[in-house]
Task: structure prediction
Amino acid sequence: MGRGRRWTDGEGGVLRASADGVPVPLEIAASYRARTRGLLGRDGIAGALLLTPAGSVHTFGMRFAIDVAYLDRDLRVIALTTMAPGRLGLPRLRSRHVLEAEAGAMAGWGIRAGVRVSMAGPSHPALGGGPARR
Result:
């Protein structure tokens, strides 16, 4: 499922919280440099950013509040929080990936603790091992 995957920086296709969920544009930050930059210097994001590997995040230097979903190896949401700018997030021990979006966006997409997200894109037909489950 989430194991053994090779992630690359850039456009990652779409993210879905359920098989019939709204497709959300996805960016991937897999290199150290891309993860370090994250959403810094931006005024917003149309979609979501996946940081991988990652177990915690901060919002120092951010211009807007974000939703943060901590994902395990199988892309299941283990914790979800909203962070204002200038905060340090708690590390999540089982987290292997972190998904970031503008504050309030994830609720509209159906992302909540326990949900397994799926990703698909032109170069990755079914990231996450198939349809997401609730």
Summary: Residues 54 and 97 are 5 Å apart (CA to CA). The first strand starts at residue 10 and ends at 16. The two ends are 16 Å apart (CA to CA). Helices lie at 32-37, 105-109.
